[in-house]
Q: What sequence folds into this?
């Protein structure tokens, strides 16, 4: 089981900021969980079985929380925030199911990945099912621009995943390409999760743009921290294995920094190890040492913090409110969660 | 390369009915082809490469033709029929890419299946990309009910595929379940392809329902004939291999009829052969003989013809017109294409 956002928050900040956020969206988040389970229903039993396995494994629900909290900040009434938060989580879940096939993942959120239990075919199809259901939920809001934002985001996510696939094992990947992949595969959905709230609030282009910027920057910070955590200890508690990226040959920023700053023999080691068919635990240990030597984690974290600050600044467009404070907390949480 | 609809039509009916249909939608179909290529574009080269490989392999474009012809019958002006026909073909293409992973297909439309050339991962992601792009196209029509129809259809298609997956090798599958799977995985998209025209034409619920019924029945006829063709000779020209269903252990209606009508030793043979890890060409020959003995193909065709007649009757709601005549021709073509 994963660790709840509140538990993690508590580890980092002590009780109070987590409680503020949790209290803010707790009721809505419970409605989202109900709607998730309701819309995963199907007479075809394998679909809810597989989907429930993933969805109930204790994900952080970060993306739906962003939709809920930004909608609350804009004082949106009614069920549309619930519908959109659910739609966003469905897109995320579909992406995870398909990613685990692409990555050949063994674990997801501390449980065996769905494709390990039900097979790749079922994971492909249930992902498609969730994706289709997410669009049906958006239709129910009656806001066509929401579908525009989330369909565009979905195609960009797929593009990002293909780019990442093509970049596997390529040590020469420029930092800009790494950042572009992170933006496409992660930050785009964060941006959409936030900016749809401006649509259903009829808040206008300026606020929509600010929320897009907020979500996009927060998503970048989140992905960079994720890449750091893959070489650090804490995330073992989050159900993701330390070293996943390394074992899969993914060139994330910490590794890229160590490679480009390394001496000739270090660079040779990276080239050989990423060219190899597989990598061992002791390879991971050495990789960690080299990354440490060249400040790969610190530099990546510095960039994550900068993105988090940009996210905070984007919120200055909005009037001060308890909701806005919670979103500011969230920006801190995302970068501090591993520390 | 596949055989064009017109060539096939000519084989069946001689020149004239094919020409009528081809003339009717030729200009629009060319616009659809242009839009397909335009919307498959991506800075990520693998996406258009893989998608073009599938889309340019000479599919029949039956589903977009249904959207174009029904829109024309309802005198819809402007580009919305082109957009929707493209969206429908994108959903179909995404489904094919994902199906070929599920089925482990080697060939598609006479070419190596995309997953054989680019790998399963790329096929999963490019399918997702096309699916997302199809929804972006629907948004451009400005008609929310179109998104409702096609998102629902997409989730039903995925359900149908999962049901089919669960039914692999299960000889006891009732005829009703077989028909329900065919309806979900094939007829649902035909129904959507036709009924969206009523939406963009603002033609009202009665006409929308009639077009749904038309597409649904035509789709059933199409799927049943497809299952017949899998045990017959002609389809080798269409780029699908004869015996695909049998080799994959799919229980289609012709096989099911032969099994349920067979004597004890025949039933034993079916059970053993579908339980085996693989099936040979000589197994296929014997399967064909048993199906022949119990009129499996004739009975399946009789059902297909009945569905085709229902499709025709659904069109009686509409005033006589050259467009309606062409759609009637299409109903005949779908059942006669193998003869």
A:
């Amino acid at each position: 089981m994963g660790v709840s956002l509140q538990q993690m928050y508590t580890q980092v900040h002590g009780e109070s900021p987590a409680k503020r956020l949790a209290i803010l969206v707790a009721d809505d988040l419970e409605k989202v969980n109900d709607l998730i389970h309701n819309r995963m229903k199907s007479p075809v039993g394998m679909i809810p079985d597989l989907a429930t396995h993933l969805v109930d494994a204790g994900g952080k629900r970060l993306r739906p929380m962003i939709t809920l909290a930004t909608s609350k900040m804009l004082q949106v009434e009614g069920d549309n925030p619930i519908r959109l938060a659910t739609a966003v989580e469905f897109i995320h879940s579909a992406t995870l199911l398909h990613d685990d096939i692409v990555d050949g993942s063994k674990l997801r959120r501390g449980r065996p990945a769905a494709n390990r239990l039900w097979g790749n075919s079922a994971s492909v199809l249930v992902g498609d099912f969730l994706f289709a259901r997410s669009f049906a939920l958006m239709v129910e809001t009656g806001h066509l621009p929401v579908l525009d934002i989330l369909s565009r985001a979905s195609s960009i996510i797929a593009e990002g995943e293909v780019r990442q696939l093509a970049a596997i094992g390529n040590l020469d990947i420029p930092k800009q390409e790494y950042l572009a992949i992170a933006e496409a595969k992660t930050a785009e959905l964060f941006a959409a999760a936030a900016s749809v709230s401006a649509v259903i609030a009829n808040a206008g282009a300026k606020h929509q743009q600010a929320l897009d910027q907020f979500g996009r920057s927060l998503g970048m910070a989140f992905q960079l921290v994720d890449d750091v955590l893959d070489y650090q200890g804490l995330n073992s508690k989050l159900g993701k294995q330390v070293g996943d990226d390394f074992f899969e040959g993914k060139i994330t920023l910490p590794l890229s920094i160590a490679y480009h700053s390394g001496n000739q023999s270090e660079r040779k080691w990276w080239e050989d190890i990423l060219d190899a068919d597989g990598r061992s635990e002791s390879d991971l240990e050495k990789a960690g040492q080299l990354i440490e030597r060249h400040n790969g984690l610190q530099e990546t974290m510095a960039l994550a913090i900068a993105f988090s600050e940009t996210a905070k600044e984007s919120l200055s467009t909005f009037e001060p409110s308890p909701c806005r404070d919670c979103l500011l907390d969230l920006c801190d949480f995302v970068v501090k969660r591993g520390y």
User: Anything to note?
Assistant: Chain A touches chain B through 41 residues (CB under 8 Å). The mean pLDDT of chain A is 89. DSSP finds 16 helices and two strands in chain A. Residues 5-336 of chain A form a domain with the Farnesyl Diphosphate Synthase fold (CATH 1.10.600.10).
